[in-house]
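Q: Here's a chain of 168 amino acids. Please give me its 3D structure as C-alpha cells.
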Amino acid sequence: MAEKKNLLIYVVEDNQIYNHLVCENLKKRNYTNIRSFTSGRECVKAVSGGESPDIIIQDYFLEEGNGVDVLKNVKKICKKTEFIFLTGNENMEVAVATIKYGAYDYIIKDKLALDKVANKIEKINRLVELKKGNEFIKRAMIVSVSILVLIVLFAILHFLFDAFGLKQ
C-alpha cells in the first residue's frame, strides 16, 4: 500500500474542470488533504479563518483578480505557505514577479504540468520534513544544555558547601 501524504494542499483554479483534474491527479499520488477553491477570495477567507495550508497551487488569472493578490494576502497570515503557480500565462515578467513576491515556482500549463507540480510538491515536502527534524534537534539540544547547566550548578553548590563547611 502506498504511503499517504498529509500536507494540506489548496488548489485555487476558477476553471472547475481543470481544478478537478489537478485535485484528482494529487489524489492519485496519495495526497489526502486537499481543499479546492474556485476563487482566490475563498482561499484567503479559509486562511483568515485559521487554516494553514502547506502548499497552494493556483492559477495566475482568477475571475476577481490575479494570483499575486492571493499570494500577498495569504503570506501576511501564513509566511510558511509555499505557492506553486500553475497557469497558462507565459509572460516572463509575470513569472518573475510571482517569484519575487514569494512563490516557490511558476509552471506553465502543458501536458507535463501536473508531473512538474507533483515534483515540486515532493521537494517542498522534503523541506518541510527537514525543518521539522531541525526543530526537534534544536529543542533536544536546548533541553540537553539546560540539564548540563543544572548539573554544573549543583556541582558548584556541592563544592561550595564542602569548602565552607556548610554541610550538616
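Q: Can you summarize the key feature?
A: The first strand starts at residue 9 and ends at 12.
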